[in-house]
Amino acid sequence: MKGEADMQRVLVIHNVVGLALLLKGWLEPEFEVDHVTSALAAKESILTYRPTLLIVQLGEQETGIMLVKFLRDNTGIKDLPTFYISGSIVGIGTAPDSLPILGIPCDAQVFHDMIATVLKGAPATS
Hints:
single chain, 126 residues, alpha/beta, Rossmann fold, 4 helices, 6 strands, 40% helix
């Protein structure tokens, strides 16, 4: 297991608490996961912890894109890898082991593999 100083941090911005808990379960203990529900909390988390990956789920993808633009303009995260989880995740209770990410059916292993691939090229956090 990696030491805390070596651990990659993932920030999840969401409006579905169950989704954040699902992703947290998928990613921990390999990744440290923060989850927030507002732009101001996201900004504070980014400035404090400098995550290596951002995951955004806010119902409409356009809302997520506008939020990320705000965060990039106000936090200096211009090159932060970002995943947008599309839709409002309707039916997550009936299929808790999978969800659509940019229209791609995804389960814990697929999601973990996608993140690991993205983070291999990500710069180390300071």
